[in-house]
Predict the 3D structure of the following.
Amino acid sequence: MRLSLILPTLAVALVPGVASAETPVSPTPPAAEAAAPAAPEIPQSRAQIALSFAPVVRQVAPAVVNVYSMQKTVDPFYSDDPFLRRFFGRQQPRGGSALGSGVIVDPSGLMVTNAHVIKNASEIRVGFNDRREAEAKLLLRDARSDLAVLQIEGDGPFPTIPFAPADELETGDLVLAIGNPFGVGQTVTQGIVSATARTQVGVADQQFFIQTDAAINPGNSGGGLIDMAGRLVGINSAIYSRSGGSNGIGFAIPAETVRLVVEAAKSDGVVHRPWLGAKLENVTRELARQLGLDRPAGAVVVELSEDGPARRAGIRVADVITAVDGVPVTDIDSFSYAFATRGTEGETEITFERASTRQTAALTLERPPESEPRDTRRLGGRSPFAGATVQNLSPAVADELNIDMTATGVVIARVNERTPAARFGLRPGDIVRSVNGNRVETTEDLERMTRQRARYWDLDIERDGRRLSVVFGG
């Protein structure tokens, strides 16, 4: 996956020893000359000039693998139709290979890569740094975090990289990026952590990233970001680039998110995220002024579920959440990361501002409930919904589709390709509010409406918090 942005260039020239004509320069007083720092000493031994990351690389390199995913594509002339085969022959589906990287995190052969690296893969192979190869099978693919967990086939134990402890990484720490850029083979680059809490990057639904200036290029996706103790601090995921090459701005998914997905793969194969039971919005400057905050930071509560954990913990509408277990919250994305990595058992401490007073609440960590039976139905007929699968909304369904967990009604869960629903632009996550002026409350309501013949279809759809009114001919 590659994220390219056009960034303006700002050139700044600094010339030591040259003063502006408009700025008077005073001679340096003798006292200042005496206090000047001493000249750096010339290294006197090999130990003083030898700086090498080789020991760390030797330790972790065997656990970083190359990932090859075979992806089948259908030939445009492929057909089982006897008439077409007379002209084009019996063409077969063709295969393509996607290159990426991965990190082994368990001696049994569990490895992590990016979800986009193995998307639509029919066969996955991994290559070790000693040129051995093995097959791997997909255990879990979580598009929301852009992570996938695979099982390498073969006898272990396999070399691994341990996870770095949570919240130890700091801006300025040295890191190594290891992966397979451009398919040339395992490569190591070095840099520092440029930022530890980048949000609004637009790479995955869970938008909270480590930024680094270590050179990351196409093919590094899924590779490891390693600290100087040989621990995994992140999985490399995306870059800002004009040309597709490294411009020194790369992003990695934090180890805590990686750990969460790996633990899910070890248990039931589903990533369970805790339920807050509240709808949040970012704190703008105007809102901060109205609420009496000294700066526009945090996530403000704008809606509460009737029996959600937030309401039971005593949180109210207009409270501004500023920390989760002491981890600062600057916006919705940073809250989502801090809250999601707490798990779904026990309690977490929520810090919030109310009427210019800082307060805390113990919030129970629990999975989103399926309070309304989903009653899954695939719609057919001659309506714009033909080919769509719909479900009744509940916090559990909303979490699976990554939409507001306080939403109610009927949601589109899947849209099959080359169906009327796909041609009319319906998407998973669309909430159907009404059809031809009739309110839709259950999947049964919607199925009954779509069975009727109509000269036109007037649809009221909610998408990403916005209401869309669309009219189609019957």
